Amino acid sequence: MQPGQSRFYVSTMGMPGQEQVISVAREEYYAEGKQLTIESLTQALIAKYGPPSEANEGGTIVQMWWQYDPGGKKIQQQGCRIGAGVESGTSLSTDCGITIGAQIQASNTNRALAHSLAVTSQNGAWGYELLQRTEGVLKAADASKKAKEEEEASKNAAAPKL
């Protein structure tokens, strides 16, 4: 990606025509001269999502996580952390409700300025339930198709020659 560009990723699950969004991610790369400060991005994230469940400021990367259980209670659970960014994928768990991960990468030339921001949001328990439901519908459809094929074969097939 070039500086000044953003990209988005949306993950869906469900039967064709009934898909629902289970995860969204966004990455933005800042052009030189239009970079935001890491402090302003951090404060904007806190203003939008509230104080994070966990945060890690490690040199050139600031990571923040907002984690909730399926009932909406804020938690600190390592298993509910999600990677930030469009290439981080989706990780579904019945233990995790809405989870948000953010990562701010510092500029190589000035560590107070941001090179990029990545944010991902998902609902692990709901996404897992939707995945299970979709899998159940597909399995039932497959079993029905096989049963129909067997029934047709028994009606239309010639008797075996032994």
Q: Which characteristics define this entry?
A:
six-stranded antiparallel beta sheet, 162 residues, 2 helices, alpha+beta
What does this structure look like?
With 162 residues, the protein is of the alpha+beta class. It has one domain. It contains 2 helices and 6 strands. A 6-stranded antiparallel beta sheet has the order 1-2-6-5-4-3. Strand 1 and strand 2 (20-29) form a beta hairpin. The longest helix is centred in the last third of the chain and has 33 residues, at 124-156. The radius of gyration is 23 Å and the shape is elongated.
Structural class: alpha+beta
What proportion of the residues is helical, as a percent range? 25-40%
Strand order within the widest beta sheet: 1-2-6-5-4-3
State the order of secondary-structure elements, H for helix, E for strand. Answer: EEHEEEEH
Q: Please count the beta strands (DSSP E, at least 2 residues each).
A: 6
Number of domains: 1
- Low-confidence sequence ranges: none
- What's the overall average pLDDT, rounded? 90
- Overall shape: it is elongated
Radius of gyration, in Å, reads 23 Å
Main sheet characteristics: 6 strands, antiparallel
- State the end-to-end CA separation: 67 Å
How large is the count of helical segments? Answer: 2
